[in-house]
Design goal:
five-stranded mixed beta sheet, ten-stranded mixed beta sheet, alpha/beta, 26% helix, 15 helices, single chain
Length: 645
């Protein structure tokens, strides 16, 4: 009942590559286990080993090894559904998860490995007033100064990271590093991650991302500048009016943009210039123009061979004759082009009277020649690159107005990101069915932005929001309004945003998914009971191994986590032979946790041929039912994977 041990997986991969590096050792309980012979591995990886005191380039800080260990360590935690705080629980594909985001990410790794198209996070900027997660790193908590005294329901501590703390950058790095390391595993091959940050930690974020994602996977230079004119400080110095958005891809070669806004109706006239004189390295290039092609400004005339200053054109096949502006037969032009391959791609396969798709996926409307005889073309503009500087007039400095429109006052949440900023990123990198993750979700701006994108541009983009239920200050407007923690603000914002978008656009948002499932991080559903041999007796065989406060739906979601089923999968309840049976993803998983389950119930479930079947050990009605369990499945659905908890 725990997530995959990443260290074991890494050892397995190394063993596959270098079998001679595998060895055995005794673990802390004296049992043999597989281990890596690092001396042998070092010999395999380098002729000249760099180790010990020898200097080399590296980015490190106190406790970095523990941060790596923390990212790799498995978790026994689970996620428990909360229907009463959800919206359209049974049908929505959106998730809102409360809890420490590191543990949540480890759980999500089981279900969403390589499935997230875009991650956006707005972590604490480490300004000296932020709260950061205290992951402890095996240190005495007394070593942390200025203890805020705030804890979440599971005892996770938040501490103030002030500049007087000698570990100012170290604590922040130890917080962010393991979270980014786990988050990488969730990204799809063409996935992207954006991190909002300011100059306090931007240099460290770059170095961490270079290490985790690889410098080659920077998107361009790996950052965008967001012009934010919210600051008025600095009368006698340079005013800081920008923030950074660090940008990396899982595999930058696979990342493409322009999925969002539909620009197919915009026409853009672009020119191809031939600057260089012909040379032996640029031989003649034959260009085929198909019948029906249009050339601007030409009507019912014959085109003669043209010799320009920069390029020579000669008809070597057919006659360049036009009627009503259309070429009346195929022709081949031979030109001495400096950019042979580009010209060939641009002009060779123009269709007959139909816009042609070029190698970049763009439609070519028409071609023409300028006064010098150089080719020009006009195309549909269905792509658009994103600028490294975001200075859009419609993007405000903060999202306070977005909060005010929903809650009646902007003071409910301080300094939220504006919807327009996130819509700007989504429009370029989130296709219509993208899954977007924000594991520092705050007031849930990303969820709000996704609703807007789906409503305005179409599509079914889905989100996973993750937020620690950090308590609000008792003196704050949020607390006075009844919001005791940040999660309550985020959930209420999603409810109100979804309702308002549907009210404002009743005709186009009838099928818009504005719901979300609330899941809450908790300890395992299983009892934390361990017995030494001398303590064990036969009475313990009949002790229930499930915690008394856990529901059948809690067990169902833990089964979904362990079996790698998406937590947004459709869930239905069926009545079979008088027992409640859970049906997930149209029969992919079926589960029954009722008491006194007999053979007739199991047979009826088996006849539906689920891929997985899960039930409690204590649910079996009699020893005879238990004895015949495997035989029943072998007879009616032998390929079903059975799991007893």
């Amino acid at each position: 009942m725990q997530t995959t041990n990443i260290v074991d997986e890494n050892i397995k991969r190394i063993g596959e590559m270098f079998p001679n590096c595998l060895t055995e050792r005794l673990d802390e309980n004296g049992r043999p286990e597989v281990a890596i012979d690092f001396d042998q591995l070092r010999q395999e990886l380098s002729k000249d080993i760099v180790e010990g005191p020898e200097e080399r380039y590296q980015f490190t800080w106190p406790d970095k090894r523990n941060a790596i260990r923390l990212a790799n360590a498995p978790t026994t935690d689970t996620l428990r559904p909360c229907r009463e705080e959800s919206v359209d629980f049974d049908n929505t594909q959106n998730l809102y998860i409360e809890g420490d985001n590191l543990q949540v990410l480890k759980i999500l790794r089981e279900n969403y490995l390589g499935k997230v198209k875009m991650i956006y996070i707005d972590p604490p900027y480490n300004t000296g007033n932020d709260f950061v997660y205290n992951d402890n790193f095996d240190q005495d908590k007394q070593e942390y100064v200025h203890n805020s005294g705030q804890y979440d329901e599971e005892g996770n501590q938040l501490v103030a990271n002030t500049e007087s703390n000698g570990r100012f950058h170290t604590d922040w790095l130890n917080m962010i590093y393991p979270r980014l390391k786990v988050a990488k595993d969730l990204l799809s091959e063409d996935g992207v991650i954006f991190i909002s940050i300011d100059d306090n930690e931007v240099d460290n974020v770059r170095k961490i991302c270079d290490e985790i994602f690889g410098q080659r996977n920077r998107l361009d230079r790996g950052e965008m500048i967001w012009v934010n004119r919210g600051s008025t400080k600095g009368f006698n110095k340079i005013v800081k009016n920008h923030e950074y958005i660090i940008a990396y891809g899982r595999n930058s070669d696979r990342v493409s943009s322009c999925f969002g806004k539909n620009r197919s109706n915009e026409l853009e006239e672009l020119e191809h210039y031939c600057y260089n004189k012909p040379s032996p390295k640029n031989p003649f290039n034959d260009v085929l123009f198909k019948k029906g092609c249009k050339i601007e400004g030409v009507n019912d005339i014959e085109f003669k061979d043209h010799v320009g200053d920069e390029v020579q054109l000669k008809i070597i096949s057919g006659n360049m004759f036009f009627k009503n502006g259309e070429l009346q037969e195929d022709i081949i032009l031979r030109g001495t082009w400096p950019y042979k391959n580009q010209i060939e791609h641009y002009f060779k396969h123009l269709g007959t009277g139909v816009p042609t798709i070029d190698v970049k996926g763009q439609k070519w409307i028409e071609i023409f020649f300028n006064k010098k005889g150089l080719p020009r073309y006009r195309k549909e503009r269905n792509t658009h690159v994103i600028s490294s500087v975001i200075d859009e007039a419609n993007i405000p400095n903060y999202g306070s107005d977005d909060i005010a429109k929903l809650f009646g006052k902007k003071e409910i949440f301080s300094f939220p990101k504006p919807n327009q900023l996130l819509v700007h990123l989504l429009s370029y990198f989130a296709d219509k069915n993208a899954l977007i993750l924000d594991f520092f979700s705050g007031s849930a701006t990303m969820a709000h932005a996704i609703f807007k994108m789906n409503a305005e541009y179409g599509g079914n983009r889905k989100f996973i929001m993750v937020q620690l239920p950090e308590k609000t200050d008792e003196k704050s407007e949020a607390y006075k309004a009844g919001y005791k923690n940040i999660c309550e603000i985020g959930k209420e914002r999603i409810r109100r945003a979804g309702k308002k978008i549907k009210e404002d656009n009743p005709l186009t948002t009838q099928d818009l998914d504005t719901g979300f499932r609330v899941l809450k991080l908790d300890s395992s559903n299983m009892q934390d009971v361990y017995y030494s041999p001398e303590e064990f007796n036969e009475k313990l065989l009949f002790v229930d191994n499930i915690k008394s406060d856990r529901t059948d739906e809690d067990l169902l979601f833990q089964a979904m986590i362990e079996l790698g089923i998406e937590l947004s999968a459709k869930i239905e309840k069926q009545e079979i032979a008088g027992k409640t049976v859970w049906n997930v993803a149209e029969g992919y998983l079926m589960a029954c946790f009722d008491e006194q389950v007999n053979e007739s119930t199991i047979k009826e479930i088996a006849r539906q041929h689920p891929y997985y079947f899960v039930m409690r050990d204590a649910s079996l009605a009699t020893d005879q039912v238990a004895d015949n369990f495997e035989q029943t499945w072998e007879e009616y659905s032998k390929d079903t994977v059975r799991k007893i908890i």
